[in-house]
Design goal:
45% strand; mainly beta; Jelly Rolls; binds (2~{S})-4-acetamido-2-azanyl-butanoic acid
Length: 132
């Protein structure tokens, strides 16, 4: 069994601040834990409006707090995000995330992240990022 604490993880190199200024994420469970997925607590900053396209990963995102919107660039549909919303990118869906009130999200990635990933120009993570 493994136990981790968010406050402690936030003070370690598990906390990654995105250079684009849109988000930070504390990667609490990573590839090296051999669970087959990774688990992150992500903060999306108020006013963020950015595109993502996880071509190499599947992702599920649960909103703990805050408010925003996700727009699918596959079908043009927009969906409100608030506490209790879960969105599931089961088709590597290209999307835009907008944040009107700072959001705290719990995110699961399959395959798991190594820990250092930040978005490339397409809003994706490469598969071979450096291991922490
Ligand atoms: C919702 C989302 O994908 N935000 C970007 C950061 C990501 N959750 C991560 O933890 O790397």
């Amino acid at each position: 069994m493994i136990l981790r604490n968010l406050t402690e993880a936030n003070q370690s190199n598990r906390r990654i601040v995105s250079p684009d200024g849109n988000w930070e994420s504390t990667r609490m469970l990573l590839k090296q834990d051999n669970m087959g997925f990774s688990f992150h607590i992500t903060t999306i900053y108020k006013g963020a409006d950015f595109q993502m396209h996880y071509q190499n990963h599947l992702e599920s995102v649960y909103c703990i707090s805050g408010a925003g919107e996700i727009e699918s660039l596959e079908d043009g549909q927009k969906h409100a995000i608030g506490p209790g919303t879960l969105y599931i990118l089961d088709k590597h869906d290209k999307h835009i995330l907008r944040c009107s009130e700072e959001m705290h999200l719990a995110c699961v990635f399959n395959p798991p992240l190594n820990g250092k990933e930040v978005h490339n120009a397409e809003g994706a993570y490469e598969l071979e990022a450096e291991v922490i």
